[in-house]
Specification:
32% of the residues lie in helices and 20% in strands. The protein has 597 residues and is α+β, with helices and mostly antiparallel strands. Strands 1, 2, 3, 4, 5, 6, 7, 8, 9, 10, 11, 12, 13 and 14 form a 14-stranded antiparallel β-sheet that branches. It has a three-stranded antiparallel β-sheet with strand order 23-24-25.
Length: 597
């Protein structure tokens, strides 16, 4: 059985990522890309679906006594204190290499420790048993188009080259490398362990040195930024929402989705967060990815794409996997790719506006795309959609969607006024005013002094917390304050965190699904921002610091938090959560700085 979601740490090479449990087991790894079939799928099933464990030899795996990333990097160090000595395993994946590689270095800090390494690759999300054999003394596991090569400084003299036990004394170190390669081409060369480790450490040190955030929450912010970078598919610049699929939002339920794709919304806000903290090259790469993916065709804009901008991400179910803690179905692909989500135009336009104002400079191609966005919105902003939460029920006039349509037009107007984009500014100002008036008339409940989830509804939605942040209304507007207080009152859990919207338990809810879910971490950070902006700074800071305490021992967050069980839920680690963390830290600091000025 897989560990709790928060029991895992992420390592990656900017093409894919592996999840390493506290007991030294890699339970999830897709090769060669984030969206490829998994070679280790025990996370969503059992050990029979693939894993790789290294730790102290013994009848049962035991959790490490401590683990941490080495400095500000994605190099994971886990240590076990045994009766005879202390064992350390260092796990990492070298970035920017042609052959995806997982490297595991095993050493004894002091004493003498018996060690066991057990590798069980299973291709096709645990369904395909490979042919395991030796080639020139190297172990290879092959199945169809895929192969993984196991190299070790121990050699492969055992009858089963994927399972070995050995004993190390203080100062001794053994290296293991698992390399993916298409099965029909020349085997990859063995790795130089020392050189690979130095190069990986040098890469992360150099990357982090560009960070411009130096506030009081630097450790948490830098870890979040490293996580966002780790979720970037370097060959194209796309940023995945998470490296996993089907980690449940409701343990034992059906709210299990594949997040290994590039959502325009998530990627845009991730790029914005990176840009605010000094990372311009990532913003340029994302802007180029956007132009290629959208291809100048807003009429057929998708809300998500594949890593290289692929449009087809059909959803299917993997019936042979029993799911994380029996949460089924296990899905790959995502049917939400065909939805209409009006808010996406706002998030993308906001990101393009930010890129222009924070130093990337105007870009003619993205300016033309932005113009097409506004032309499209002129004819479609008044239509119902599935909204930011990708409901699988009927389309509705979601207030957040309309607000973000307003954001798209507003930012386009600002770019014209700045001389960065050409467009009919008077016409666009009129469109902006029309959308604003419609939202205030149709989406506001005068009796309760709050905006609502959709036109004519009484339900609330945490996305309403973003109204002041995007400038739709000022923070001191009574409608904004009333909305924030209503969301806090009606959507908060017992511990003060925020649900996205009401769910209906065993009945089908407004989102078209049965079951409940945990507090949505990004929404909880949005409440931090909203409270801070309306002057309740200390309350916002207190909530922020309680949210930081939900991070696991290596600073990672999933999508949601189960307040009843005290555990993380959903795909992991989640870009949306880490973006929101970094943004909230920045807002807290900027408001405090302005107050002191």
């Amino acid at each position: 059985m897989a560990g709790r979601i928060e029991d895992y740490a992420l390592i990656g090479d900017l093409q894919t990522g592996a999840l390493v449990s506290r007991d030294g087991t890699v339970d999830w790894l897709c090769l060669p890309r984030f969206d490829s079939g998994a070679v280790f799928s025990a996370l969503l099933g059992t050990e029979a679906h693939g894993f790789w464990r290294i730790g102290p030899a013994g009848p049962l795996p035991v959790p490490a006594d401590r683990r941490a990333y080495r400095g500000e990097s994605l190099i994971l160090e886990s240590e076990w204190d045994t009766p005879t000595g202390t064992l350390r395993v260092t796990d990492f994946m070298p970035p920017h290499v042609s052959t995806p590689r997982l490297i595991r270095l095993v050493e004894v800090v002091h004493g003498v420790v018996p060690v066991a390494s057990t590798l069980l690759p299973r291709f096709g999300y645990g369904r395909v048993i490979p042919w395991v054999h030796k080639v020139d003394g190297r172990a290879v596991s092959e199945a169809g188009p895929d192969s993984v090569w196991l190299d070790s400084s121990l050699g492969t003299n055992a009858a089963d080259p994927n399972c070995t036990e050995f004993t190390l004394t203080a100062g001794e170190c053994v290296g293991f490398t698992l390399s993916w390669q298409p099965s029909h081409i020349t085997p990859p060369p063995p790795a130089d362990y020392g050189e690979a480790l130095e190069a990986t450490e040098r890469f992360w040190s150099g990357w982090v040195s560009q960070c411009t955030y130096n506030g009081p929450y630097r450790d948490a912010v830098v870890r979040s930024l490293i996580t966002l970078k780790a979720l970037t598919f370097a060959p194209t610049g796309g940023i995945v929402a998470a490296p996993t699929t089907s980690l449940p939002e409701d343990i034992g339920g059906v709210r299990n989705w594949d997040y290994r794709f590039v959502w325009l919304r998530d990627a845009a806000i991730a790029m914005s967060s990176l840009l605010r903290t000094g990372y311009r090259e990532e913003a340029r790469a994302w802007r180029r990815w956007l132009l290629r993916a959208v291809a100048g065709d807003p009429e057929n804009l998708q809300i998500m794409y594949g890593l290289a901008g692929e449009r087809d991400v059909p959803e299917s179910e993997l019936g042979w996997l029993p799911g994380y803690e029996k949460s089924t179905p296990v899905r790959i692909g995502n049917a939400a790719s065909t939805q209409f989500q009006l808010d996406v135009y706002g998030e993308v336009t906001e990101a393009l506006h930010l890129a222009s104002t924070l130093g990337l400079g105007p870009d003619r191609a993205s300016g033309r795309l932005l113009t097409k966005f506004v032309r499209y919105l002129k004819d479609h902003w008044f239509e119902p959609d599935e909204g930011i939460w990708e409901v699988r029920g009927p389309r509705r006039h979601f207030v957040h969607s309309k607000v973000m349509a307003w954001v798209a037009v507003d930012r386009a107007v600002k770019l014209v006024e700045a001389g960065d984009v050409d467009g009919p500014v008077q016409e666009w100002r009129g469109l902006r005013d029309t959308i604003h008036r419609d939202v205030c008339e149709q989406g506001y409940d005068h009796e309760r002094n709050t905006f609502t989830q959709s036109y004519g509804s009484r339900e609330l939605d945490a996305s309403l917390l973003l109204i002041p942040r995007f400038g739709f209304l000022p923070p001191d507007d009574k409608r904004v304050i009333g909305t924030i207080e209503a969301v806090q009152r009606e959507l908060s859990t017992k511990d003060g965190f925020v649900l996205r919207y009401p769910t209906a338990g065993e009945n089908t809810g407004l989102d078209g699904l049965k079951g409940d879910e945990g507090a949505f971490l990004a929404c909880s950070f949005w409440l931090v921002d909203a409270l801070t902006l309306i002057g309740r700074r200390e309350e916002g800071r207190g909530l922020f610091e309680r949210l930081l305490e939900l991070s696991n021992d290596v600073g990672l967050l999933a999508e949601e938090w189960d307040s009843a069980e005290g555990r993380q839920l959903g795909n992991f680690p989640q870009a949306f959560s880490h973006v929101a963390l970094a943004d909230s830290a920045g807002i807290l600091d900027s408001v405090e700085t302005a107050r002191r000025a």
